[in-house]
Amino acid sequence: MSKISLSKILFAGIFILFLTTNFIVFTFLKSNGNKDTFENRNKTPFPTLIADNYKAYFTSIENYFSDNFQFKYDYISNIKYLRRKLFNFSNANKKVIYGKEGWMFLNACIYSDIKGMDEYCGLFPWTPKQAKHAVDNIETIKKFCEKNNILFIPIICPSKHTIYYDKLPPVYKKYQNNRYDELMIQSNGSLINYRELFIAQKAILPYPLYYKTDTHWNPLGAYFSVMDISKILNKKFPEIPSLTLNDITINKTISPVGLDLAKMEVINYDVEEDNVQINLTTKIPNKVHKAFIIHDSYYDYMKVELKQLFDVTEERELFKKPITAKEILDNKPDIFILEIVERYLDEINGDLDKGFYK
Q: Structural domain of residue 172, as residue ranges?
């Protein structure tokens, strides 16, 4: 038997000590709670051994220890901080793009996330036929609502990188029209072009319209849609005022806490966010009775002011189920609002419920 070298024994001892130390640290410093707040999901529970599935069992054990390790996100945060500061790298799969002056962007323009920013650049546009189909769907819903004495208001929100494209890294260039452009061209003015509106307003206003470290517009950006809704309502319900920027107060503070994109990157420090808050000062005593609203997460930033226009609002998320004519009629609204961000435009480009054609 060959003599084992001292270096091999030392290496084996260090390895065993490392494993033992990690086990002891995990035992006494296990993270609290069952929710991973950074990834917005439940932590992996300790698995139950199943005789015919040993591979999945050990994988689940690895995930359990990873999810419940006390210093998991401190380690990730420090590594990403060094990568960002030294090399301006984003995370491994480039889910988040680091822009200029602390701006961050979601590297996705369509629902699947597969093509990243290519759709913004115009590399995966709709054909004129596809864009026309989306516009026809919106017009069909509008005609159905008019037939049933319901006012239909579609709100198509532009993605942040299409407004603050000047904050993107220079590599991202727009070569031709993308889906939002084609939709607006085919709509022939029947849809409000918030991209054009916001690009014009950002040059005038001393406040941003979107969060720097979040995917969403901020309350001020969202208020522009509320102003447009109030103007549309005013034509049918004169008691509703046509709101303007003079009807709100605006306050901006600087926060050292990043929002959803910063959380995706696990950035705990060296980040600043412009928190723009608004307050609707105009009182609206006479309201429209009821609005039915189907929406994505952009609605969260407009609902405080929007709800002041109605006595009752019924809401549901866009992705819960397909939009049907029966659902709209069952809610008996005066107003039907469909809010959707451009990233999810495919949701209005499929086949409509047959009830809309009756």
A: 100-357
